[in-house]
Structures are given as C-alpha cells and as structure tokens.
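Dock S-adenosyl-L-homocysteine; give full complex structure.
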Amino acid sequence: MSDAPDQNGGFNAERKMQFLFQLRQKGITDKRVLEAMEKVDRGAFVRGHFAARAYEDMPLPISSGQTISQPSVVGLMTQALGVQPRDTVLEVGTGSGYQAAILSHLARRIYTVDRHRNLTREAELAFTREGLVNITVITGDGSFGLPDQGPFDRILVTAAAEDPPGPLLNQLKPGGVMVVPVGQSDAVQSLIKVTRTDAGFDYDEIMPVRFVPLMEGVARE
Ligand code: SAH
C-alpha cells in the first residue's frame, strides 16, 4: 500500500480544490452536494494501487469485477436525486460504498444493498472507519428493494436495469424520486429520473451513462 493516497497527502486541501473544480465544470452546482463530496475521501473507498488515482474523474475497478463510478457521474446522480435532510434513501448497488457515504451526509438514513457479500463487508468496514453511522448495509438482490424498511423518499440504483424495477417503483413514497440507469447492459444507457405523483409516475431523461448491469440473485462470493 506504499502508493495509498494517505501516504502522499490523501484528500488534502489542494486535491479537494481540484476535485471540486472538476465537479463544477461537469455541471454539479448544488451546494449541498458539493459540500458532501468535499467531506468524503474517495481514497478511503478504493484499494491497492488504484487508490493513487482516487481524486481523478474516472471510474476505477473495485473487488468482484465491479467499478466505483466516476465522481462527476456520482455528483450528477446525487444532484438529480434532490435528497432532503429528513429523507430515508435506498441505494441499490453498494459497490465500494462511496456513493452511500455521500448520501449519508445529505439524508437522515441510508439503506444500501449489494449482491456481493465481500463488497458489503468491505463497505461496512469503510463506513465504520469513516465514522458514518446512519448507513445500514444489506447483502441481497436489490431489485426487489427492501419492503420491510420502505417506503423510501429517494431510491438510487447504481447498476443498469432494462426497465425501472417494479418493486422499487412500489417502494417509492408519494412525491418520491428514483434515479436509475436504464438500457441494455452493453449498449448506451440513459439515466432516468422517476417521480411518483398522485396520478402515477413521471419520467425524465437526464443523460447517457454506462453502468454494470443489474444482475439477478445474490452472488456466490
Ligand atoms: N455505487 C457504487 C458503484 C456501484 S457498481 C459505488 O459508489 O462504488 C454496481 C454495483 O451493483 C455492483 O457492486 C454490483 O454488485 C451491484 N449489483 C448488481 N446487481 C445487483 C442487484 N440485483 N442487487 C444489488 N446489487 C447489485
């Protein structure tokens, strides 16, 4: 771990400034989102020699063949979600835990689900290390949501579905918002914002994205 970022300054003042500059350039203007992203050291969620690149605006590999999303994409998704301080939020696709850590500074309570047990285990350790106490981590197939913990004010899906999963739509509170990448796994996907209204659901397209696919079932490791 000789190249871990904390051995060469970590998320120091200069890096923070550059990181926030990149985010603003990519269209992240929401003050609360920028403040939350300033508080979370992405280097704490990336392992091995990739940690040295934690503050660059690029996706990076994590365990189990998954990826931690590009910071600007995390920022734009978080901004689109419009999280309020009293919200209960469900994230599907814990991955490294980076996105959940940002949400934890913006909402009251976060539930995050991943189908890979080793990812949820590592993310949970990172949350404890970083002192983030309002996140509950669960291993499971997140496409069914968490019926016992819902309904949710906000749902963020960080893996691509062919369509917004029905159980997740059902677990949105009235007025609730879900952000989800939709499309075929290897084609261009669209990030969609779904708002639950009295009459049903409103759909807005936000931007083209590329995410790993939402898979069925719990992974074997
Ligand atoms: N939000 C993450 C990045 C997620 S990558 C971060 O901040 O690092 C997408 C994740 O979705 C992967 O970890 C993958 O294991 C998970 N995933 C895919 N299908 C899933 C499902 N049905 N239920 C829960 N997690 C799923």
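Observed: The chain has six helices and nine strands.
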